[in-house]
Specification:
This protein has 243 residues and is an alpha+beta fold. It is 16% helix and 32% strand.
């Protein structure tokens, strides 16, 4: 609900970052994208070690985390998780169904699809990826959606793998059932000027996504809200669930 706040005078700028799980098998293996509540078949303890990236440089944050020599436990199942999730086997060819859905979403968002895409690695230092990084592919950019207030630009659309599911944060226990589920990550431009516009843009994006095979239910779509006001710094609100 809008208030009497003068958002224009505040210089409010807002952008959305939406992560939507796709209803396919996992992104880099053929395991089902199935979350389970039964007891896991095995548990593996790991320590993540810092390594240099393609530039030859070591990420400062990753080196800092590695200095604590923290131990993580990963739980898995013999019939629905495999060596790819455990980082004991190289990733397989990218899931073509997930890639097709990402391309279809790109078209619906009026994006320019890149002629060549390359799987990239984003360093992850919290233990939620057994490999210490997340695989992501930039699929398209420079799109837009139409709202009643204005046209909102779509900066990028990426296809990436979801992280392992946290089971016990204090004990650093993760489950491998969610790791590798395909996600599309949609980032809007910072062109949203009021809370009402943010709500309409989020609902519009959700409406478009639901025309395609995506997962439904709590936790299958997650959004971050980036915002700032004149003279201030950008603030990111992670996991903003309630429209």
């Amino acid at each position: 609900m809008e208030t009497n706040t003068d958002y224009e005078a505040l210089g409010l700028k807002c952008g959305l970052e939406i992560h939507q799980q796709l209803d396919t098998n996992k992104l880099f293996c053929n395991c089902p994208s199935l979350l389970r509540k039964d007891e896991p078949d095995f548990k593996v303890r790991r320590k993540l070690h810092v390594v240099a990236g393609e530039s030859g440089e070591v990420d400062i944050a990753a080196a800092h985390e590695a200095s604590f020599e923290k131990e993580f436990m990963y739980e898995g199942y013999l019939d629905t998780t495999c060596l790819v999730e455990l980082d004991e086997e190289p990733p397989h060819t990218i899931n073509l169904n997930a890639l097709k859905i990402a391309l279809q979403i790109s078209l619906l968002l009026n994006c320019k699809i890149l002629p060549i895409s390359q799987v990239m690695r984003k360093t992850v230092i919290d233990g939620s990826n057994t490999s210490g990084f997340q695989r992501t592919v930039l699929i398209a950019r420079d799109g837009f959606i139409e709202t009643s207030h204005r046209r909102i630009g779509i900066a990028t659309l990426c296809l990436e793998e979801d992280s392992a599911r946290i089971i016990d944060k204090e004990k650093s226990i993760f489950r491998l059932d969610r790791l590798g589920i395909p996600l599309v990550e949609i980032a809007t431009d910072a062109e949203i000027k009021t809370p009402g516009q943010a709500k309409e843009a989020a609902l519009k994006l959700g409406e478009i996504l639901r025309t395609l095979p995506v997962k439904r239910g709590l936790g299958t779509i997650r959004q971050d809200v980036n915002l700032s006001i004149a003279g201030g710094k950008r603030i990111e609100l992670k996991g903003f669930q309630d429209i």
